[in-house]
Amino acid sequence: MIKKYLYATFFKLFFLLFLRTSNRKNDIYIFVIDNTISDTWPELLTSSKKIAFHNAKPFERVINLIENLYESDKVVFFLSARNYNYFGLTKKWLIKNKIYRDNVFLVDNVDEKFWYLNKCKKFKIYYFDDLSFNHERGDVKYYDQFIEKIAKLSNLKFYDHEKLKSIQQGENYEI
Length: 175
Fold this sequence. Notes:
The chain is α/β, with parallel strands linked by helices.
């Protein structure tokens, strides 16, 4: 329990520093990793989380979008509800896909993401998160209460499961 608290505190402090050093004139683009920039759930059908996180295939069009945001000097970070012990593995996956810039933050559960989103009040936020779970069991469910909660943030534009599928499949989308 203490270890989890220390990790959570570290990530929050690092995030506050990240925000402080970000260009305040820029919008912020927040991407979740699993099922948003990586196709994680198919790997979970046959593998442990560790192997699934390592082997997950990137959604190339989303990776390209992130690369374009970097080229446009946009502030991008990754926010993922993964066990803190997966930080090193998460970082390696982002490096392997050439999108890591000291900009990954892990939370213990989906609800903790709100703290991070709420700290970005001074920015326009573009939030890419499928906010779904249970894919591997064939019955996709959504974090409806969390979706309702973030809908109240006037500075946030939310790219949900359907919008992400459009991006992932190469359909026209507007940011």
